[in-house]
Amino acid sequence: MTPVLVLVGPPASGDSWVLSPDGKKSQLGSPPVKEAFEWYRKLVADGFIPTSEAAPPGPGQDQFTVGKMIAQAAEIGRPQADRDIIKDKFKYKAVLWPKGKAGNRGSCLSYNGHCMSAKTQHPDEAFHLLNAITSTEAGFRAGYEGHANPYARHTIWFDKRLWDRYPIDEDGAKWFEQGIDPFPMPANLRAQEYQDSFIQQTEKYLDGKETWDQMYPRTQKAVQDIIDQPRP
C-alpha cells in the first residue's frame, strides 16, 4: 500500500474555525469545530493515530517518514522537508485535503517574515542581506533544492521546474490564485500565547484521556482569557 501525504487547502466557512475570523472569540464550541475534534479523537481512541506519548522513531523523523503511519496531514512544504528522510524507502503522493460536506477545504496562508531592526548599526549591510535572503533565487532554492516552502513570490510558485519535482506545488499555486483564507490571528496579536495554551489544554483530550465535557470549559476559558487581553 502506498502511503499518502494529505495537505490542506481552503476555503473554510467561518464557523468551522477554532478562532473567529475577526480574531476576538474562541469558537471551540461551534458545532463543526466540535464535530471535527470528536472525529479526530475517535481515530486516536481506535488506535489509528499515535498519542503524544509515542516516542519519535529517530532524530528528524516521525511515524510517517519511517513508514509506520499510512497518512498524515501537513503543510504544503512537507514533501521538501521529508525528501531526504524518506529517500527511496517508499513511494508517496501528496494531495490537497479533500473537501468537506459543505464543499469547503480548511486551511490558511501562513508565512514567516524576514526583518531588519530599525536600531541596527549597519542598515546598509542589513538591507542588502535582507534582499539576498528574500530574493527569487533564494526562495526558489529553498523550495526546490532545500527543505522548506518556496518563498512567497508568484514567480517561484509558478516555476514549472518546481511543479515537475513537486506536483503538489502546482495544485497549491493554482489554488492560491483562487483566493485563500487569512491566517487566524488573534485581534490582540497574541498568536503564540494563544497557540501554546490551546495545545496544552487540549492535549489530554486528543490523547483520549479526557472527554469533551472535561476539556471544553477549561480550554475555552483559558484561550478566551488570552484573546481578551490588550495588545502587547
Characterize the structure shown.
The protein has helices at residues 31-45, 78-86, 123-133, 136-144, 154-157, 160-165, 167-177, 191-206, 212-227, and strands spanning 4-7, 71-74, 93-96. The protein is mainly α and 232 residues long. The chain has two domains: 4-108 and 181-227, D-Maltodextrin-Binding Protein, domain 2, CATH 3.40.190; 123-177, no CATH class. A three-stranded parallel β-sheet has the order 2-1-3, with helices on one face. 42% of the residues lie in helices and 5% in strands. Helix 1 links the parallel strand 1 (4-7) and strand 2.
What's a quick, concise take on this entry?
With 232 residues, the protein is mostly helical.
Query: Average pLDDT value?
Result: 88
Low-pLDDT residue spans? 4-11
Classified by CATH, the class of the largest domain is Alpha Beta
If you consult CATH, what is the topology of the largest domain? D-Maltodextrin-Binding Protein, domain 2
At CATH level 2, the architecture of the largest domain is 3-Layer(aba) Sandwich
Largest sheet: 3 strands, parallel
Helix content: 40-55%
Separate helix tally: 9
Give, in order, the helices and strands.
EHEHEHHHHHHH
| Total strands | 3
Distance N terminus to C terminus?
Answer: 50 Å
Q: Give the number of domains.
A: 2
Strand sequence of the main sheet, in spatial order?
Answer: 2-1-3
Structural class: mainly alpha
Fraction of residues in β-strands: 5-15%
Q: Report the radius of gyration as a whole number of Å.
A: 20 Å
